[in-house]
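The instructor's notes for this session suggest beginning with a concrete chain rather than abstract definitions. Hand out the sequence below and ask the class to guess, before any prediction is shown, which regions might be ordered.
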Amino acid sequence: MKGLRRARLARSCQGSEFASIFAPGDGGAVSTVIENLLSRKQKLVEQLEKARSVEDRDRLENQLEQINTALDFLDRPAPKDAR
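After discussion, reveal the predicted structure:
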């Protein structure tokens, strides 16, 4: 199961798709946070591909899940009353 999860995490941010998940140049603090999260995610995926120990892989997978949760939260549409 962990191998499948690891493959899904790695696949979710390959190549140029990684940088184009969110529209570039939309300005504001949220886009900066998103850019930083995506950059960190890419680095973690690269580390995950090289990780040898189970402990390292588990730690990296946990960090990737936290980043994915944050990205999902930031990508949610604004509530109707906020528009």
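Then share the key points. The longest helix spans residues 28-50. The mean pLDDT is 77.
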